[in-house]
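User: Need the bound-state model for zinc ion:
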Amino acid sequence: MPKKTMMLCRPCADKLSVNATVRAVRRGVDMKITCQMCGRRRFGAEYEVGGKGYEGGVDDHGGK
Ligand SMILES: [Zn+2]
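Assistant: Bound-state model below.
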């Protein structure tokens, strides 16, 4: 399964976690980041995104 790290704000991380596996790389740290989902400068963290299908492409065969 492909995995990548993304800088995400909280709302986007929540949204992504519905369809993908989202894991905070540095837990409990809130820092000012530029969110890679919404492109805004907000408080967020670095997340490892992987699993079922994240924004940017789903290329698994079969299964939900
Ligand atoms: Zn965002």
